[in-house]
User: Which sequence fits this backbone?
């Protein structure tokens, strides 16, 4: 996988927004898989600024969700549907019709998972999938020991992930759902270009294991090593435990600009 070390989160956001802009200029109706959490926000801010300035036409872009809590009432402000509408769809000036996600309030969760996998395939597959990484190495909500071949399905969150996400629920862990629907690792690996952004020292161990450790379900993000075109963008703090950091820096510095990410 390609590892790009950037000075800070803002630079990471700008770089990835550029990659999305390049994709939209060659494929205006690209299907963009978006992630939630704090990490990707600089990407969405940079992209929305490009749309506002007229540098990017995102009017035909399609957006799809990576994961969703199970059991939050429809319209809950922290459901990922609400978050993606608020942070991505609205700032890009898109309508809800351009957006798809799994139904976390469905009575038949299994059917909702299968329907979402099918809908992604019928939409032509995900062109570019943004990913964050959990401190435990999860991508989407594929917690450690998720099958590397998994499809969209229901998962149980680890205690660590619920602690990490309590900040979105008034710091009250009892409000954080136990269950989620997440694109599987197999589903994520079908995207044409997964891009993982990690920032901050808290992610340094997970990043090192993802990039330089063995492919192992204990670190779900390490499955990205199996993808022919996966990009990992990290700030200096998240890169601080990479043994090959200097090699990654030199490689990227020598990369022709036209190649993009
Ligand atoms: P964060 O979440 O960006 O809020 O750290 C990442 C993740 O859990 O995938």
Assistant:
């Amino acid at each position: 996988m390609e590892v790009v070390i950037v000075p800070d989160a803002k630079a990471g956001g700008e770089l990835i927004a550029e990659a999305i802009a390049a994709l939209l200029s060659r494929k205006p109706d690209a299907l963009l898989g978006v992630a939630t959490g704090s990490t990707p926000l600089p990407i969405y801010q940079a992209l929305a600024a490009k749309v506002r300035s007229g540098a990017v036409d995102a009017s035909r872009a399609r957006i799809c969700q990576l994961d969703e809590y199970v059991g939050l009432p429809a319209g809950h402000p922290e459901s990922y549907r609400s978050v993606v509408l608020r942070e991505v769809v609205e700032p890009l000036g898109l309508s809800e019709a351009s957006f798809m996600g799994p139904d976390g309030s469905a009575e038949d969760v299994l059917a909702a998972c299968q329907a979402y996998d099918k809908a992604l395939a019928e939409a032509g597959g995900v062109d570019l999938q943004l990913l964050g990484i959990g401190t435990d190495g999860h991508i989407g909500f594929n917690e450690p020991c998720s099958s590397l071949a998994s499809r969209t399905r229901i998962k149980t969150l680890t205690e660590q992930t619920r602690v990490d996400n309590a900040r979105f629920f008034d710091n009250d862990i009892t409000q954080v759902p136990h269950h989620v629907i997440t694109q599987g690792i197999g589903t994520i690996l079908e995207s044409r270009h997964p891009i993982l952004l990690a920032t901050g020292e808290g992610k340094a161990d997970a990043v090192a294991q993802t990039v330089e450790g063995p492919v192992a379900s204990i670190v779900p993000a390490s499955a990205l090593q199996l993808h022919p075109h996966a990009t990992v963008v990290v700030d200096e703090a998240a890169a601080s435990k990479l043994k090959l950091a200097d090699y990654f820096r030199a490689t990227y510095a020598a990369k022709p600009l036209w190649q993009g990410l």
Remarks:
- The beta strands are 2-6, 31-34, 62-65, 67-69, 99-100, 128-131, 153-156, 179-182, 194-198, 231-235.
- The longest strand covers residues 2-6.
- The chain is about 35% helix and 15% strand.
